[in-house]
Amino acid sequence: MKSKKYVLSEQDMPKQWYNIMADLPNGMEPPLHPGTGQPAGPDDLAPIFPMNLIEQEMSTDQWIDIPEEVLDKYAIWRPSPLYRAHNLEKALGTPAKIYYKNEGVSPAGSHKPNTAIAQAYYNKVAGTKKITTETGAGQWGSALSMCCSFFGIECKVFMVKISYNQKPYRRLMMETWGANCTASPSTETESGRSILEKDPDCPGSLGMAISEAVEEAVSDDNTKYALGSVLNHVMIHQSIIGLEAKKQMEMAGDYPDVIIGSAGGGSNFAGLAFPFALDKINGKDIDIIGVEPASCPTMTRGPFAYDFGDTVQKTPLLPMHSLGHNFVPAPIHAGGLRYHGMAPIVSQLILDGIIRAESINQLETFESGMTFARSEGFISAPECNHAVAMTIREALKAKEEGKEKTILFNWSGHGLVDLAAYESFFRGKLADHELPQEQIDAALKDLEPLPKPKQAS
Ligand SMILES: Cc1ncc(COP(=O)(O)O)c(C=O)c1O
């Protein structure tokens, strides 16, 4: 029998996270204080995050010890299995070898608990009593709810309204783990009220939900905010994915020529890719591809610029690919990919030529998800289907070229709570959304008065 999965023991789980900040070929430009435009220091972030996480955010240490309490919780589902997709390869008739890291085995169903556990733990150590956050499709909100319950911290989630209405079961998961979930924009915060005043039917966006969560966090000393993607410390925590995958690829006697991940804020893609990106920085030839929706093309059509992480301009300015903090993407089902910006480290590595980006339309992602489900069995989250679709494109290209490539992709989460999206697809109710350049140009106008990074594009 051919090996189907590569499984590490709990003892083989990595004991340190990898921080690519130590190895960036051209460094990074700093975040800026939104008021002064000067580099933001630890004290500027202190109202939002606990100091132990701020230190990690600014760290350039290559390796960071994973605390024992975090390892203990990781062991609930980690190490996650690496699969060889023999059946998908057969269905496509490709000479390519396809591997995927299954991050859908966590209790919340995605990679998000990898950082939620760590963030809840560091907040607990710092004495935080309550954490606020935003969520798109609900994967991050449910992951943080679970992890806050493990550490006895109250959790409040602002969920993008369109997803709140599309995905009631995610909200119920959050409630099961003891969190309070509110549709955003809400009337509970000034930010939410100001948005609703202009547009009472606003479907919401991640940028708006972040504004609400940050506002609530800064209004109380015992409350902090947590972000599920984008920031450096999130990329560090997610590196556990790639570190395990490296060991598992070794077990399989293979090494990837192509690495693929879906990218909303960049965290699952970075988590898988960065430990391999280090090899590329050191000379290895790997094609590393982040995949985004054509209707929210942050990396492929957004410039590298300083921009706010949220709509109401409460966060520091981050150097990143962005479509502008007021950009509201079409209401596609991959709610977790509807973010106007991209992780600064991912953005920097695009500039450095270490990774590249592609965008794919919604219908192709669902068609690909169907091919995957009917060969490998697993039903993917709509976000994850972007990685599946790119993998299928690459595998078919290998077939055309007659090349035996090795492709590794991150299966970032299951779609069992997203079946309403699949139903819309079956009933012909899903569409591709053309994004006119004028809409992007209009949103980018908001970047004009902001400081420019040295490498502005
Ligand atoms: C299953 C899944 N994949 C991917 C993403 C995109 O987020 P990120 O780019 O931070 O991995 C999300 C976000 O919610 C998600 O739930």
Describe the protein's architecture and organization:
With 457 residues, this protein is an alpha/beta fold. It is 41% helix and 16% strand. The chain is built from 18 helices and 15 strands. A 7-stranded mixed sheet has the order 1-4-5-15-10-11-14, sandwiched between helices. It has a 4-stranded parallel sheet with strand order 8-7-6-9, with helices on both faces. The model has no long low-confidence stretch (mean pLDDT 96). The structure holds pyridoxal-5'-phosphate (PLP). Pyridoxal-5'-phosphate is lined by residues 110, 136-137, 139-140, 229, 262-269, 336-337, 381, 383-384, 412-413.
Please summarize the sheet with the most strands. 7 strands, mixed
Helix count, DSSP H or I runs of 4 or more residues: 18
Identify the quaternary structure here: single chain
How many beta strands in the DSSP annotation?
15
> In terms of per-residue confidence, which ranges show pLDDT below 50 for 5 or more consecutive residues?
none
Q: What share of the residues lie within helices? A: 40-55%
The value of Rg in angstroms is 20 Å
In what order do the strands lie side by side in the largest sheet? 1-4-5-15-10-11-14
Mean pLDDT across the residues is 96
Shape: globular
